[in-house]
Structures are given as structure tokens and as C-alpha cells.
Amino acid sequence: MDNGILVLNSGSSSLKFALYLQRSGGALDVVYRGEVDHMMTAPHFSVSDANGTPLAGNDWAKGTPISAELALRYVVNWIETHQKGIEIVAAGHRLVQGGTRYKGPCLVDSHALQYLDGLSMLEPQHQPPEVEGIRALSRIYPNMPQVAVFDTSFHRTMPHNAEIYAVPEAVKDAGVRHWGYHGISYDYINRTLPDYDAKASRVIVGHLGSGASMCAILDGKSIATTMGFSGIEGLPMGTRCGSIDPGALLYLLRRKLFDDQSLQQLLYEESGLKGLSGISNDVHVLLESKDPRAKAALDYFVYRIVYFAGAYTALMGGLDAVVFTAGIGENAAPIRAAVCERLQWLGLELDAKANERNGPRITTPQSRVRAWVIPTNEEIMIARHTAALIAPAQERRQVGAM
């Protein structure tokens, strides 16, 4: 029987999963990808094969919420029923927060789980359902190794000045620091870029999607990133505001125009491109719109990308390569073109035809700064980290069986 690794991304209303087969020599091949979505309103299960061909689906009664454990049990039962030649030997989970304790992925035991649960106040939107996903799977498979892979870990190489805010030590100790997110994506790009551009040591990566951020990577290490304490700092996003003066938020609270819950709703769900345009949070919709508000929203998005690109170039003492990734970065050629046009002063010469083809290289051969379009793959990074952490135990079992 072959070994399989289950990759899970547990949300408050959805559960995304993938099954990877471990090949001899360490290769990992995806077998299935799927999701249980709308878990609180109209739960729906869907799964596809490695080529994206739909294989099955299931609907629960509308208006009947299902728990993370029920969703997981359905997923696991479907996999075990349809893939009898693979044994699930471990699970890897995406977690947003690893705090100060975890600078890399970890095997989850009761002590780790307690610590990770305690970080939920830092990231109340994502951390609680991610922790519950681990708990739920442990009730199904009590003895299965589970690995947590963190979005924050990649940024723990940032220098001290990039990790702090100008607040008293007691406030920092309470968790108010520049954490940084999207680290699993940056980890993948950082490991993949040498296949495209082996000489690039001063790199800016734009993870531009519904959630958007940028990262300065110097000699393979994160030294700065736009997301800070929370996932709303930095760039404007689909519905998130990006950086905003904290005094403005205090003002809104003093005016009693918002309370903490409605203010969170404003900053996370009603701002960003959606708030600026009044039309949509979808970049493709905005690109096609003739409404001047759509253009104004996209202009602001590009402005902030260029703003941080200039700052990060200064921090690294120059720039060798720019990488565009995630949904917007990989697919929105006009956004890439607008950014590259504003970075011509760095020696970046856009190849317009290559950009329209989505790369991978979108600069001319003579361009001093190279620009690339590289699809990200957070899922495979979670699978790889999981396989690496369980490898010693697998080796011990193999030796014991001889």
C-alpha cells in the first residue's frame, strides 16, 4: 500500500483538501483536490482529479450547518472508499499564526495545540477554524501525525527593526509586532525562482490576489513584508483596506460610527478595491468596467505596489528580479504592465507580448531587472514540509519491519 499525505486548509465556512501520493525518492504527486464549501448555509462537497476533472459532488440540506469534523469525516470516508491503494499516513495543515515559538513547521502535540489555540486572539478570523481542523482530525485519526505549516514562519528572518512597532516593550510582549503573512507562498516562490533566475539575490515578490502582499527577499531570506500585525496592513486588497492611519480608526470609534465588530467588517469586508470602486472586488471586473471609479481603484492599487517596490529596493541596495504570483499577479497582464512601467527607472524593460502570454519571463533579454510570472503552490509546500517532518518516524518503522 502506498503512503498518502492529506493537506488541509480549514476555514470558518469551508474546508479545502488535497491528497498527495508519496513516491519513492521523495516525489509527491497530487491525486485529488476538493472542497467542502458554504458549510454554514448550504454545504457542498466537490472533488477533482489531478487534472482538474470533476469526479464527485454532494449537497447537504440547505440551512443545515455542518461542523469541521463532519466535513472531514465525509472527505476521509470518500478518499478511503475511492482510493483503497493509498493509506493516509499524515496530515499537513495551513495555519496563519505560529507566533514567536515556531520559526518553521512543527509536528502538533497537545502542547503545540494549546499554544496555537492561544494565538487565536492575534488572528481571530483564520486561526480558530484552522486549530479546530487539527482537533477534528485527531478525533478521527487519534494516532496520525499532524503537521502545522505557518504563514508567519518565513518572515522570522526579518531584522529586528522590520519586526517591531514603536510601542512599549509590554505592548510588543502582548503580541503587537510585525508578523507578516503569505509565508507559505513566498517559501514556494523562493525555492522555485532559482529554476528561472539563478543569479537573482535581491528579489521582490508580489503575492497579488484577493488578499495581497509583497515581500523583499535578500539572499533567500525575507527582510520585509507589507502585511504586518494583521492581514489588513500594507497593500489594498479585494475587500481589505491596506495601511490606514490608526488615528482614523480611533476617530471612527469616538464618533460612535462603528463598534469593534462593525469596524472589523468595514476594514476586512467593505474596503479595498470594493470600497474604492463601489463596484467590485474583482480586478477583472474592474479592468473591463468603463466607470472612472474602477480605474481610480486600480490606479491606487498599482500606486501602492510601486510605493513598496521602491522602499524594498532601497532596503536591499538594489533589485535583481520582480516576481508576480497569485490570482492577480499570474493573470492580470494590465496590472503587471502598469507596475513595470512605473519601475522602468530601475532598468526594467517590459516585453509586452510576453506579458500578454503571462510569461514566465515578461522582460526583454537586455532588461537589467528581470520580471517573472510564477504560479504559486502553497499546497505542495505544506505536503513537502509534512513529508520531511514525518520522514524520521517512517524510517524507524521501516527498519523495525526488516
Given the C-alpha coordinates, what overall shape results?
A: globular
Gyration radius from CA atoms, angstroms:
22 Å
Major β-sheet profile: 8 strands, mixed
Question: Structural class from helices and strands?
Answer: alpha/beta
Helix content: 25-40%
Write the SSE topology.
Elements: E1 2-10, E2 15-22, E3 28-37, E4 44-49, E5 54-59, H1 68-82, E6 86-95, E7 106-107, H2 110-118, H3 127-140, E8 146-150, H4 160-163, H5 169-173, H6 183-192, E9 202-208, E10 212-218, E11 221-225, H7 246-254, H8 260-269, H9 272-277, H10 283-288, H11 292-316, E12 321-325, H12 326-331, H13 333-342, H14 352-356, E13 370-373, H15 378-401
Parallel strand pairs: 1-6, 6-8, 9-12, 12-13
Antiparallel strand pairs: 1-2, 2-3, 3-4, 4-5, 7-8, 9-10, 10-11
